[in-house]
Structures are given as C-alpha cells and as structure tokens.
C-alpha cells in the first residue's frame, strides 16, 4: 500500500488567505474597528485558527462577533480563488508515488467543486471536510485515518497553520508546515514544527524526506 499524504486545503492547495483577509478587513471597517493588517505577511502573523480570538483581539463584543460572522461566513466562491502556482503539477507528481487525501475545515462540497474545476479531483482518494465537525481539525484528520485504516507511521500531514501542526501531532502524525499559507514560518517554528517549506515547489522533496 502507498504511504499517505493528508493535505489541508486552504493555504496548502488553495491560495485563499488574501480573500479571507479582505473579509476580516470588511468586518472591522463595518464595526469601526482598526484592522492591523496591511498585507498578506501581516495576516500570516495576525490570524488565529481559533477564529473567535481574531474578533476579540480587534475589540469586538460577543454580540458584534455574532453579527460580523454573517459577513465572514457568507458562502465563499472558491471558483474565484486560485490554486497556488505549480500545485496541480506537483500534486500529479506526488500521486504517482503516494495516496493523496484532504483534511480541511472547508466544506467537502466546496473542495470537491474546486478540484473538479481544476481537473484534479481524481488525484485524491478521500476528502474529510468541516461539514459536521466545524473547526475540530483533530477529528477531521482522524476521520481520514479511520476511513483508510492508516497507520501514523505511513502518513504525513501537510498544513499551513499552528492548528494543523498541533492536531497532526495529536493524531501521532509527522507534519510538514507550509509558510506560504495562512501562518508565517516564525509561528510554525515557535510551536516546534521542524519540517517547513516556503514554496509549493519544495513539497516533493520534503515529503520524500519525511516518509522515507
């Protein structure tokens, strides 16, 4: 059996951080809050996977957070969100040697639709989305492992946030952090992530190294 790669979607395959950064900026502006993010690098150092903290740090009350979420959580049109440069070719190459899966807090249907749009849906054996488990990334990853009966020693998780790495470790998985996504290299290093890449082009070599 091939060894398994468990990919996060946003920030690893889909370049969605600029889109969501703008959503947060709009919410802050609507409620008269100062948004301390000027560019995508600022966003990588500001964004907290525990989304409530993002609002609390901006000074939102609980009531304001509930109202603001109607804006941030309104359906995102992933057909307009690009994939990272060269990622399709990289995934195709990896699929020749490894079994590819996805574990993401994004809804399964959105992921599936985007993969079909890009003609790469057939590269993935299984997708675990956030439909029933929200932002419980530990369980979303565990679903993939149970579904494919994966041994932790035969798999690696690839994620771009502190939560991805922490939840991979809680599932006894090795992890690769992508600093080109939603969190910076500095933040990934701070939580002890040893395997970090700065561009998608580094993925094949790092995966081979970790799974060898």
Describe the structure.
By secondary structure, the chain is of the alpha/beta class. It has 10 helices and 6 strands; from the N terminus they run βαααααβαβαβαβαβα. It has a 6-stranded parallel sheet, sandwiched between helices. The protein is globular, with a radius of gyration of 17 Å. The two termini are 14 Å apart.
Could you outline the blueprint of secondary structure elements for this entry?
Elements: E1 4-7, H1 17-30, H2 40-46, H3 51-58, H4 62-72, H5 87-95, E2 99-103, H6 108-117, E3 124-128, H7 137-147, E4 155-159, H8 162-170, E5 174-178, H9 185-190, E6 196-197, H10 203-211
Parallel strand pairs: 1-2, 1-4, 2-3, 4-5, 5-6
What can be said about this structure in brief?
The chain has helices spanning 17-30, 40-46, 51-58, 62-72, 87-95, 108-117, 137-147, 162-170, 185-190, 203-211; strands at residues 4-7, 99-103, 124-128, 155-159, 174-178, 196-197. The protein is an alpha/beta fold and 212 residues long. The two termini are 14 Å apart.
Are there runs of 5+ residues with pLDDT below 50, and where?
A: none
Which structural class do the helices and strands define?
alpha/beta
Lateral arrangement of strands in the main beta sheet: 3-2-1-4-5-6
Form type: globular
Radius of gyration: 17 Å
Q: Provide the β-strand percentage band.
A: 5-15%
Question: Helix segment count?
Answer: 10
State the order of secondary-structure elements, H for helix, E for strand. EHHHHHEHEHEHEHEH
Separation of the first and last Cα atoms: 14 Å
**Helix content range:** 40-55%
Total number of beta strands: 6
Mean pLDDT across residues: 94
The oligomerization state is single chain
